[in-house]
Amino acid sequence: MIRGINHVTFAVRDLEQALAFYAGVLGLKPVARWPEGAYLLAGDLWVALVVDRNAGGTTVPDCSHVAFTVEPSDFEALAARVRESGAGIWRENRSEGASLYFTDPDGRRLELHVTGLTERLADMRRRKPDGVRFYDDTGDEA
After folding, report:
1. Options 3.30.70.2860, 3.10.180.10, 3.90.1150.10, 1.10.1530.10; which CATH number does 2-131 get?
2. Of 20, 92, 122, 125, which one's alpha carbon is 20 to 30 angstroms from that of 33?
3. Does the pTM of the predicted model rise above 0.85?
């Protein structure tokens, strides 16, 4: 059973410009960034910005999508139903926790995801990918 929206990912061509807009103009709170992306909070909603040179293009799809939170105990059954429906799979899971990236009948990109931002940030802190910077509660770099 889906519990809510897990996160929203927007493909962006220019990370600095996107951060200036989402954090500076809209007031979202940055929590982490790296050379190819950033995580921000819009209240309790996790927003991911991911650099994708195809963002905004009309012929090549980008990585923009909406992710739904799923209980770990429900993930396999729901993922199987999605696969059995014939939904297209648009990406393989490379993140922490179980995820299924699929399309709806109109081609919208969706995801089922079992972990949240806390787990994602903990995983990033463990792996320490090059260029990752974290922010404190005030939005300043930590």
Report:
1. 3.10.180.10
2. 92
3. no
